[in-house]
Amino acid sequence: MPQSDPTSSAFDAAxxxxxxEGGGLVTxxxxxxxVGGGILNGGYLLSVVGRAALLDSPHPHPVALxxxxxxxPAAGPxxxxxxxxxxxxxxxxxxxxxxxxxxxxxxxxxxxATLGDxxxxxxxxxxxxxxxxxxxxxxxxxxxxxPGVAVPGLSLRLDTRLDPATxxxxxxxxxxxxxxxxxxxxxxxxxxxxxxxxxxxxxLPPTAFAMGILGWAPTVQLQVLVRALPAPGWCLVEARSSExxxxxxxxxxxxxDSTGRLVAQRRQPARDxxxx
Length: 276
Known about the structure:
By secondary structure, the protein is mainly β. Helices cover 11% and strands 35% of the residues.
């Protein structure tokens, strides 16, 4: 996956990584990918890091990333330091640190490889979800935001269609079960690829929303596995929590492409919005 033409899509432009004069890698973090209050989405930041990890890798795809979020970086200029690890015929490893003017904000152990299209030996089926046209568009309902509350940039960059069965929180009727599902694609029509899956793996609101607990749930650590090359079209994203206790929430994501193939998984611990 070579460096994309930065004019090809908003996502490619926002995740562009270039080599600085004298060495090193630089990027410009785009404020348009925030989740509210100017806080940049963790999946967006991981996509920037994933692109940096690929620049000198002998393999074209990010397949396993384990990220520690040290603090929320500011939009604007940032640097990326890539420390190569072992590399072989099937895998390569690197440690990537993303820093802004204040210092390190994100460290990622990144593994790259070449994804194929082999049929899975075993897989759990995609959930039964209504078609896209019967789901609720986040962008089309942004007028429901509270007065004076800025609409998160991420909700404008992605076309997100919430499964009605898990969208009751948006109309004041939370289900009480920490599960969210939505169809997701880029608003400008860009097709998904492994880097996009890193973004989609943090694209939904916190699962606490489904419990009626609203607010930012800061990511502490995030692990993403990219399992296959996604087919063009919509991806179905499911987020589920199994434990909410002691000020912490665990979240598991599964992502299927338009053919029903499982293409990515994600796990993270996050802080409960009530505990900040």
